[in-house]
Amino acid sequence: MDAIAAAQALSEIGYLLRQNEKERFRAKAFSAAAWSIAMQRPDLESLQRTESLTQIEGVGEGIARVLSDFVQTGQSRYLNRLREEMQQPARDDESELDFNDYQGDVHSHTNWSDGRATMLEMAQGAQALGYSYLGVTDHSPRITVVHGLNAERLVAQSREMAEVQKQVESVTLLQGIEVDILEDGGLDLPDAVLEILDVVIASPHVKLRQEAAAMTERMLRAASHPHVDVIGHPTGRRPGSREGASYDFEAVFKEAAKHGIALELDCDPARMDLSPEMARLAYECGCNFVVDADAHAPAEFAYVPMALWMARRAGIEKERILNFRPLDELTMATQ
Ligand SMILES: [Zn+2]
Ligand SMILES: [Zn+2]
Fold first, then answer.
1. By the number of CB atoms within 10 A of the CB, which of 220, 243, 244, 314 ranks highest?
2. Is residue 56 domain-shared with residue 142, that is, in the same domain?
3. What is the mean pLDDT of each successive set of 10 residues along the chain, which is 335 residues long?
4. How many domains does the chain have?
5. Distance 232 CA to ligand 1 centre (A)
6. C-alpha distances in angstroms, 41 versus 4, 49, 140, 311, 335?
7. Cα separation of 61 and 157, whole Å?
8. Of 28, 52, 85, which closes a domain?
9. What pTM does this model have?
10. Domain of 136?
11. Domain assignment present for 94
């Protein structure tokens, strides 16, 4: 039994529970257990044999029972029941994705904005996972509370990146930005700045409850911008706590597909944006994807292996996910 498969089952349970306000504590417990397993990759079969699954950090009696069922049968009756209840039963057109083929994360934060670790610590975290690249994408100036980066600070950051790069030779650092999509669909940094960065993730953070027609215009503009590589967490929702933006998803996804702009599956359990249903719609619209942790600390890189279930259930094969490509085929970094 692969620890990552178990982490994905617990993560999906956490996600489904999170849709119900009353289950939010249980949801968090499942997500936390999934995270712990994705990070530590314990030998589940031997823990199961000795009835000591509760030795895993974050795994109490209840979660141990679910885990035990999964380890023994490769299935979780609890997950299957939740899927039925939420009308999301298993489908026969899900894809196969192996985290061992994942090449690198392109959305991460450092203490240049709201990350809790230095660039070196993040780069070393990526290196420990065997990633071949890491996109460092701190926030743009509009997010003043997190000290977003303007052109001047990006230049200073690039100097630090050159120094850090010397210390983590196996990981290629990509300098990027998570640029805010403004209310009118413009971006929070001038084109001349965006143009020189390796990775540009355009994300909606504020005014998510804009009226749908205006929100559609806003997102269409971002999804056709020549310097944007990725639309970050495209709805901005936080399941169970904040409803996301509502707009003509199909029109925006088609626009992104037309311009070769990828959509992000943000694996942070508090976000899990898109959703299996919306990811499937985007897939059918012809979009490419990136699957990112949106990590604010090295331990959060483990959000990716635990959340890959969403891409699987959406039927997205690895050819459509840019993170499964080696650096020289990562088109965003060379555009
Ligand atoms: Zn963001
Ligand atoms: Zn982010």
1. 314
2. no
3. 93 95 94 97 96 97 97 96 91 93 98 97 97 97 86 97 97 97 96 96 94 97 97 92 92 97 96 93 97 98 97 96 95 58
4. 2
5. 6
6. 7, 16, 35, 21, 37
7. 46
8. 85
9. 0.95
10. 99-333
11. no
